[in-house]
Amino acid sequence: MNKKTVFMVVCLSFITTIAVYSAVMYLFPGSADYEKQGFVHAKDFGAVPGDEKDDGASIQEAVDYSAEHNIGTVKVTGGERYRMESEVVIKQGVEIEFGRNTVVEVVGDFTVFTLEKNASIINGVIEISDASFKSSVITLDGKEQFWSWEITQIHGLTLINTSGENSGTGINVTADQTNEYVSFVDFASLTIVGFNRGIHLKAVPSDEDPNFVNGNRFTNVTLEDCVECIVMEGAVTVPNEVSGNQFTNMQIQPTDKTESIMTVSGTNNYFQGMIWDIQLLFNNQPIELKDQSNGNTIMTNLNASYIRDNGVNNTYE
After folding, report:
1. Domain that holds residue 16
2. Which keywords accompany this UniProt record (predicted)?
């Protein structure tokens, strides 16, 4: 075998190896060195933007892979449009990162994203286009027992219902069984538009250990065109306490569909922000402090005449 033949054989072997490797990388995304790059992309698990098919299962597969292999981040990026017809549970230790201009269209009625503790979701636009939607876009369930040393974060999202029905809930935080709690979670730079309830915090009494939703921070939140913008259901203390939650730098834009700006139970919750175009409302007291409210502070541009106060020791300016 002469040198020219040997050279051709070596080149052919090299090209064949590269082709096989590329095919494996395409067909089996788990073979890629995701651990080294520090993230997986939903496209590698079958998500195809713009094809009008469900990408929820592919995003879930990417989340599961990331959790199993301790990778941490699932990217769904680019100025593209994805479609979800099934729930995604963001597993412990996983962050879903959407591009700022990435749109996820939700078709159907189901909880869109449920976060386990130490899970996060950032950026992107979640659009509800289905008039049948009655569920929640983002859910935190107190069975996860969110606490101060967890790093759960919900940042930079736009949640918008474009169906015209003002249905469903933007963010739902619930402790409703026994010994359930959601505390010290950061929600920041959120825009919530067109829902029945924008933000809903709820603690239900238990015959055993108490449930509570306490000490969460909502910063730089815009609420627009919601029937009920903020609803807090619970008591001033255990067994179903909703207390010490902070809402700062809020911008609230009601429409003629808005019935309530805030309905507040619990103790020492704090609200600060701007409420626009109050003349659009039929309800002349759109802020209600329930009989199970104590020591809450409301600092907005609305005076006391817009507030129905059935609690004790509440203050407002």
Report:
1. 1-28
2. Membrane, Transmembrane, Transmembrane helix
